[in-house]
């Protein structure tokens, strides 16, 4: 295993664990640690962003050039993830919101799936 892949693996696991623990802290009212959960999830998200930057740096890739197209994709991705999160929250936290939560969650998944062709494009494989 290459050094860059091992470092990325370790950093991703740490960031993913922090982010998921923070989300659990936010979504489980029995724990009573919503505010702390927001902080832990934010630290996890920042760790994942740093992991991505470190991996690009270690791979010798150029930094991403920020333009309107990139900003639009990022905003769309954040919005899509929030829609999925709202659906999950409706299911887990709110009472009698199971069916609407599932519908909102499916819409969020479809929105996130639409992000793939937005970022990678569609290619014709018949050529």
Low-confidence stretches: none
How far is the N terminus from the C terminus? 35 Å
Roughly how many Å is the radius of gyration?
18 Å
- How many domains? 2
Question: How much strand content do the residues show?
Answer: under 5%
Report the major sheet: none
Order of helices and strands: HHHH
How confident overall, as mean pLDDT? 91
Report the principal-axis shape. Answer: globular
Total of DSSP H or I helical runs spanning 4+ residues: 4
Q: What structural class do you assign from the helix and strand content? A: mainly alpha
Number of strands: 0
Topology:
Elements: H1 3-27, H2 34-58, H3 68-92, H4 98-120
Helix pairs in contact: 1-2, 3-4
Features:
2 domains; 127 residues; mainly alpha
Q: What's the quick description here?
A:
The chain is mainly alpha-helical and 127 residues long. It has 2 domains: 1-63; 65-127.
Structure explained in plain terms:
The protein has 127 residues and is an all-alpha fold. It has four helices and no strands. The chain has helices at 3-27, 34-58, 68-92, 98-120. Helix 1 (3-27) runs antiparallel to helix 2 (34-58) and helix 3 (68-92) packs antiparallel against helix 4. The mean pLDDT is 91.
